[in-house]
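The instructor's notes for this session suggest beginning with a concrete chain rather than abstract definitions. Hand out the sequence below and ask the class to guess, before any prediction is shown, which regions might be ordered.
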Amino acid sequence: MNSEVKRSISEDEVAAFDRDGVVMLPDMFDGDWIQSLNQGLIKNCNLPTGRSRVWDRDEHGRTMFYDAQAWQGIEEYQNFIFNSPAAAIAGQLMQSSCINFFFDAVFIRSPGSQFATPWHQDEPYWSVEGYNTCSIWMPLVPVKRENALAFVPGSHRLDSIFCQYNFGNLNPDGVENVDQTDYDGITDVQFPDIDADPERYGVMSWDMQPGDCIAFNSRIMHGGSGKLDEDTELRVFTTKWLGDDVYINFRECG
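After discussion, reveal the predicted structure:
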């Protein structure tokens, strides 16, 4: 497996990441990395961590499975984090002199799943704060534009603090006090209703193949990635990277 960046990242792609807070990078990882991550994903599903969640289960038994920080027990994830081009890609996009790995996360939707991720920003849920952040979102199967994660370009530069979605409401298994987010007393600015007028917000998403990735800033508004065809599943591996200006900030909302 090649640890070098498969192709050069252009100045336009670096500029898009800075301007829009998101850029789709085609053909960044070779097939060996995709095969290895798929093997790791099978291990992850068979032995999930205590941080795993089922965020949706419909009447047909279709689910959306999530897990995070599983890299410590899965060799394929460790190998990707330490030896793949991901850190170099994040560093070039953020133009940071120091790159730190933050955590990994996986998202697996059953074939035909209609669950769409609520619109949100990532940083308000994290224990860090700073502008230089980069998430690398990698589908391990082909994904259509209408099923891929979608973004509001430029929203990473907004000054407002928004009420974020309480992901604890998604747990169908009746587990109390899990993933609860309470913004009472922090802000009363409601999150925009992006689905009501996606053209107004300039929502962006892309058709993607395994080996492509989306890189995005943790402050950008994003959501979707669901409503699959009956014969279509979605398997996504993500890594989160931190740059020069990021510092620890334990938040009161979680």
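Then share the key points. The mean pLDDT is 93. The chain is about 15% helix and 25% strand.
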